[in-house]
Design brief:
Layout lengths: L12 H5 L22 H8 L5 H25 L1 H5 L1 H4 L3 H68 L5 H6 L3 H8 L3 H7 L4 H25 L4 H25 L2 H13 L3 H20 L13 H25 L8 H8 L2 H8 L3 H19 L24 H13 L10 H28 L9 H5 L2 H29 L5 H19 L2 H12 L4 H5 L2 H6 L2 H48 L12 H22 L8 H10 L11
Length: about 650
């Protein structure tokens, strides 16, 4: 039977090589539709870049058809159970009635319990509300009592003023009677050595402190407003009259107490206005009367200078005492200083002085002056430069003079602001660094022979060796100034700082001086590299070297030239000896070869002196004379490594280890 079965139909090429009928392309992901963040517009915009709309529509229609088929299959699969459901549900109403009875009972209990809880909650809320109202009423009552006590105290203090301003200024006898009727306060102060004016100012200070308490009570309870306003006006009036009287009579104690009272009530502007109208305005009127204002435009410079001096004298005589009253000592702790700096008046005053902008302007002024001086194209000494010996501190080159002037400008009394002392210290070090970089770039350009890679170094290319003598001289002067007077001046200005800060400042300035000192050897080497081609002795005996170089610098220059010349001499002599020995060795081998060909014995030694020995002997005599000449100049030849190597190269075998002339 198996043999009689028909074979399966042949499969088409689409079935073999194409995609299955129910399959979808890889770009069509069905799970994307189930995501909670699925968005149809973004989905289509993502696929439109590589899938045509027709293809996408056909795939979506195919997917929709498959979903409909699946839905029908699910409905048909459970349809029989759905139809038979009514036959399986028997006596449902009776079961519902049986379950409803206990549920109704539970509901009734819950309603009763809820009513009881709500009643208790309402009772508690009512009790809490009554308690809060009682607490608020008690707080208001306490506030009213405190306000009443303060108002009563202020009224009592105002009544106890020793004397009224009119009686005090007129000096009549009624003041004594009023003082006698004011609970004896004035007589008590008089017996204690306090004048009535000072006693009045002290009492006004107490009133001001109590008025400050009233401000707090007013913000919390709007009570006694009329009384408080009347007391405030009366206290301000009495305080103003007392302050004016203290200024007119120059009573420092009374002025101090009044100022404390103004500070307590935060009314410093009124004190400033009174001082301006009582003291400043009469002084200006006395100096520049109203009838001479029309002549100010044609006034000469001498008249304005005289007015300025007169105003300064008035300030010194009639205004400076106010600064002495509030001088140092009234902020004894850091917290007091912090509180003082947190006041609005102090903040407004400090806001007028923008220290950052001031330093920026000074920075541009000082650093710009040095940059302008460093744009020179040649080293030309300034006129009238002093040439008075190696200890002279007069600089010769304009860049050096400008550097020293800029360093001193940073710490001048009319420039320095102590709060910016760290910035001015940094500026000083930057000036020294700028000068050092200028010199280093010039030396590098001179060594390279081209100033193209070093902008602003044209001066080094065009300078002769004698010009670098000025640089060495200026470096010595700057080093002495920076490490001496300049350091002492800065330390004196910063003497109020701690020891640790002063040590750091000293180290930084000395480090800047060391950077200047480190420039001297490269400058020396630049001179040596040029003068060795000429006459070192003529250079050292020249006018500039004898005038501007110290004995130490001359010795260093001579030592460097001796090392350089000896090194070159050693190279030439060693090359000569080496070439001579190689030539002599070659000739000897040729001669021995010729003797062997002729049949002569090659063992016969040649007792004649070789050319190499002759040259070494001549060089040995020369370096002995050269060593004696170095000794005459003060240079020890035995301490020059190149000379020792040359001695061992040309000296006889018995004298190679001992250098003697």
């Amino acid at each position: 039977m198996a043999d009689l079965q028909s074979p399966p139909p042949p499969r088409s090429p689409t079935d073999l090589f194409g995609d299955p009928i129910d399959s979808h392309p890889l770009w069509f992901n069905q799970s994307s539709f189930l995501l909670p963040t699925f968005d149809s517009e973004s989905y289509i915009s993502d696929l439109r870049t590589f899938v045509p709309f027709e293809t996408l529509r056909s795939e979506l229609q195919s997917h929709l058809s498959s979903l409909k088929h699946e839905l029908l299959d699910l409905i048909n699969r459970d349809y029989a159970d759905f139809v038979n459901l009514s036959t399986k549900l028997v006596d449902v109403d009776a079961a519902v009635v049986r379950m409803r009875a206990p549920l109704s009972e539970i509901r009734e209990k819950i309603v009763v319990f809820r009513a009881a809880v709500e009643g208790s909650l309402l009772a508690l809320q009512s009790g809490l509300r009554q308690r809060a109202e009682a607490a608020a009423a008690r707080e208001v009552l306490e506030l009213l009592l405190d306000t009443f006590h303060v108002v009563s105290k202020v009224e009592k203090l105002i009544k106890e003023l020793p004397s009224m301003l009119a009686d005090l200024s007129n000096g009549d006898l009624n003041s004594a009677e009023k003082d006698h009727l004011s609970n004896g306060i004035s007589f008590q102060h008089t017996e204690n050595g306090t004048n009535p004016r000072e006693a009045q100012s002290m009492l006004l200070e107490r009133i001001a402190s109590e008025m400050n308490r009233l401000k707090f009570y007013i913000t919390h309870a709007q009570v006694y407003l009329a009384v408080i306003l009347m007391l405030t006006l009366l206290a301000f009036s009495c305080l103003g009259h007392c302050f004016i009287d203290g200024l007119q009579n120059r009573d420092e104690n009374a002025i101090y107490n009044c100022l404390r009272a103004y500070a307590a009530i935060d009314n410093t502007r009124n004190a400033e206005e009174i001082f301006r109208s009582t003291v400043v305005a009469p002084l200006i009127q006395k100096t520049i009367p109203h009838n001479s204002l029309g002549m100010v435009g044609g006034a000469s410079g001498d008249e304005l200078e005289e007015d300025y001096k007169q105003i300064k004298q008035y300030i010194e005589k009639d205004c400076k005492f106010l600064l002495e009253i509030s001088s140092t000592g009234y902020c004894p702790s850091r917290s007091a200083v912090a509180k003082f700096r947190a006041e609005a008046v102090y903040i407004d005053f400090i806001r007028q002085w923008n220290v950052g902008v001031y330093f920026s302007l000074r920075f541009q002024e000082i650093a710009g002056a040095l940059d302008s001086a460093l744009t020179v194209t040649s080293l030309v000494p300034i006129q009238n430069s002093h040439k008075g010996g190696e200890h002279s501190q007069d600089l010769t080159l304009k860049p050096s003079v400008t550097l020293l002037d800029c360093l001193r400008s940073c710490w001048r009394e009319d420039v320095l602001v102590l709060s910016c002392s760290d910035k001015f210290l940094r500026l000083s070090l930057q000036l020294i660094s700028r000068y050092s970089n200028w010199l280093s770039a010039g030396l590098a350009a001179r060594k390279a022979g081209n100033a193209g890679s070093y902008p602003g170094s044209e001066w080094a290319i065009s300078s002769v060796p004698e010009d670098f003598v000025y640089i060495i001289y200026d470096l010595n002067c700057l080093l002495a100034e920076v490490s001496g007077d300049f350091l002492g001046h800065v330390s004196e200005l910063l003497s109020s700082c701690s020891t640790e800060v002063l040590d750091l400042v000293k180290q930084s300035i000395l480090q800047g001086g060391k950077s200047l000192k480190d420039l001297i050897p490269p400058v020396m080497y630049s001179i040596i590299g040029t003068v060795v081609e000429k006459s070192v002795e003529a250079f050292l005996e020249g006018e500039r070297a004898t005038t501007y170089l110290t004995s130490e610098n001359r010795n260093e220059l001579l030592q460097g030239a001796a090392f350089e010349i000896t090194g070159r001499y050693h190279e030439l002599a060693a090359d000569l000896v080496s070439v001579t020995r190689k030539t002599e060795s070659s000739l000897q081998r040729i001669r021995q070869t010729a003797q062997r060909r002729a049949g002569a014995s090659s063992d016969v030694s040649d007792n004649n002196v070789s050319d190499t020995d002759k040259i070494c002997m001549q060089l040995f005599l020369d370096i002995q004379e050269y060593g004696r000449n170095l000794s005459d100049l003060g240079v020890e030849a035995a301490k020059i490594p190149a000379y020792c190597s040359l001695w061992q190269c040309v000296a006889p075998p018995g004298r190679q280890n001992t250098i003697s002339f």
